[in-house]
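Run: sequence + protoporphyrin IX containing FE -> complex structure.
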Amino acid sequence: MQAETSGRRNAVLTVRSRSQPRFWLLELYDSAIGKKAVMAVTGIVLLGFVFMHMTGNLKVYYNDGGERLDHYSEWLRDAGQPGIPHEWLLWGVRGLLAASLVLHIHAATSLTMLNRRARPIGYQGGRKYAAANYAARTMRWSGVIVAAFVVFHLLDLTLGTTNPDFESGRPYHNLVASFEREPVAAAYIVANLLLGMHIYHGAWSLFQSLGLNHPRFNHWRRGFAALFAAAIVAGNVSIPIAVLTGVID
Ligand code: HEM
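>> structure
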């Protein structure tokens, strides 16, 4: 009875897919290669943001009581003026980032399901990864924890919901107030270390997903991924440590 129902459902799907040609991008997204390409392209957008954000945050080290960081934050809101109204460009970038994040997570989840369907029993003696290392094996978990961190981070430093000393328009004051609480600073440090692992494997594998994979260049890929991840982690982790040690206050 169940087999009959699923047979009928498959027949309906087949008829529907034959009679309604779909947009080629959606067809491509149905395949593992399409999903990997989406992960790579959205990954590049997110890596670009994380790098720019880290370099922007380094303005805390000007030792000017946060003047440059606060001014930078204001400039981001005014970007494009007078041609583009206040905050419109910022909202455009936020939209692009949010769409990239959603697509990145969706592609990752559906790739996992596709792999499970293709190999429901699993690999004998454990899976052997092409770039077999800890970062590669923990991509799913590091991704989930970093996503949870981003939610907390927005509540902490953008909306101020979890930051009792939050003052709108004063990011320097807010981040110092936040990192003075040791458990919060520790959470930032752990999340950024996991982000570093995620970036290391992500930056390495995105070349492969885009077909830029040749044994002669693989050591460059590895070097680039390691350097990029290390720069992000060092820049980001240094800030809560600088607050905890009183280097910035
Ligand atoms: C210790 C490291 C970090 C520090 C000190 C930091 C600092 C800040 C600050 C001060 C803001 C508020 C900016 C403003 O209101 O103008 C902010 C916003 C934000 N941060 Fe971070 N951040 C860190 C790490 C990260 C990481 C690792 C991510 C992503 C994985 C991230 C994603 C964001 C996002 C999406 C926003 C909101 C931007 C917006 O739309 O206004 N941050 N961060």
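>> summary
The first helix runs from residue 2 to 19. Residues 50, 53, 57, 73, 94, 146, 150, 153-154, 157-158, 171, 175, 188, 192, 195, 236, 239-240 surround protoporphyrin IX containing FE (CB under 6 Å).
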